[in-house]
Here is the input.
Amino acid sequence: MKIIRKGVEITLNEAKKHLKNGEIALCPTDTIYGICGYALDKNVIDRIYKIKQRDESKPLSISLQKKSDIAKYAYISDISKTLIEKFLPGPITLILPKKESIPDYICKDYVGIRVPDSRIILELSEIPITSTSANISGRPSSYSISDIGKEIIDKVDIIIDDGDCEYKKPSTIIKITNNSLELIREGSISFKTILKELDLKNIIIKK
Here is the structure.
């Protein structure tokens, strides 16, 4: 692993301090490289939208360090509790009803939450951080630093290079509302695998 900040190699602990102070990093997750910054800092979020050239009406997901942290930021139903226990940490994004602790400038009614199976991003996620893909909006995801365009590289503060991501596929996205489950995107975990873990008798499945 190599971490560069403004041309100087730094440690992971130093990178954490800089993120807490509002800097932005490129960081590997278990699935893709992400643009990571303190999710509760509006200036950071504004910068990330500009870097990605992303429509601000499109929400950003966040990464957390522990499964137990999810309840601080989102409401957990029986369905989401099962998925949290079975698949996290891991390559799945759960879209859950958000609590007031998540500002509207990140997302409105629902928040996408990840607890990646990746030591580096979990270390950084002592604070909730964004984990949006490190690409210009609409372009392919990046699975190594070499995949990331110069237009992204030149606008971040910290670059963390730890080789290729494990899965080389984006996370699977599931939206959960009360007793309904919506399959948004199939990624590293198949929908079939997810549905096997649930009691489908009392669940509405949307596709």
Notes: The longest strand covers residues 92-97. DSSP finds seven helices and 13 strands in the chain. The mean pLDDT is 94.
